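Worked Example 4.2. Read the sequence first, then its structure tokens.
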Amino acid sequence: MARKETVTKKILLDAAFEMLDKEGIEQVTARKLAAQANCSTQPIFRIYENMEQLYADLYTKACEFFQEFYSSFQKTTVVPFVTIGHVYIIFAQKYPNVFKFVFLNKKRYGNSMYDIINGETGNVQREIQAARSQGATDPSGLFSRMWMFIHGAACMSLTGDYDLSETDTVNMLKDAYTSFR
């Protein structure tokens, strides 16, 4: 009778995600992952041809984690792009290593930043539609300007250069929307 496989892809991805969140992608190596998952490296390479394949799956898991975070966030304003910006900045603050892996990674495994932010539910498209319904003449251009501002604020939080409260963040995003409009 064949031996039962006890280490699964899910176990490996969960362990890799925990490592990513706590230590960053640089620390997700085969040996360290094996230690985290309480196994040898053999099951890793039975399931994955190489670490790059694992990183691709880990990237998908990290993007799904962001979407779940976004979906569970309480929307506090009807001003377009404010909630999506607020969520993005808070995500960078709470999960800096995951944020870096997903949004500051040159290799996005076939996804654009827009694809990741928009998600399967059309997050950005809904905001663009809201801006259009509120009278914005170029809502897509408005999103581009807002996004540069939002992304810059999120990146500043990674270096400790962003110390605004959540209330101040929301007010700043509302002001930016008004200014860019």
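Now turn to a second chain, presented in exactly the same format:
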Amino acid sequence: MTAKQTGAVSAHNAKVMNRADLTKRLVGQLKCDEAVVGGIGNANFDLWASGQRPQNFYMLGSMGLAIPIAFGVAIAQPQRHVIALEGDGSLLMQLGCLATVAMRAPKNLTMVVWDNGIYQITGGQPTASASAADLVAIARGSGIANSAWAADEDDFDRLVAAALHNGGPSLIAVRTDNKPGVGTTDRDPVQIRTRFMLGLGVKRHQ
């Protein structure tokens, strides 16, 4: 039996997948104006390349804040599902957010962590997840029981669908390759903020 069939998927036996491809697969499952917060660097580059939805928010220059921002949106708009796309290095800088998410337990929050084991944007230095740190184990230890490694592309699709339909909070960790992002986001923070506010219905066109 495979690791996926036995439920024994870990950081060590999960398939290494392509982040850009999985981002497109995730966006393809969105049907109800879900909000998506892309972490800095390649997480939001790939989100941008998957299609510029008004409900997308693209982080600029602030490591570790994708999950806290998505958490805040999930609390403010409990009727809307919110997804955070975060890198391993950024999450490691803000691990305390997992305990806070677990304590508040918003059912409409899904966190996707792209783990390539390096700080890719700054030169490829190894992150702690490249050796001993297991981000799923950390999330479960923080109180997020619905945390899992994606075994392969089909398993990723299944985990995303379950998170969107069954409620959260959920964390999906994915082993990814080191290919660069496939797009470049708009670098105007005011425009990014305004578009997102319009997409969430908290600001009207003037």
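Notes for the reader: The chain has a mean pLDDT of 89. The first strand starts at residue 35 and ends at 38.
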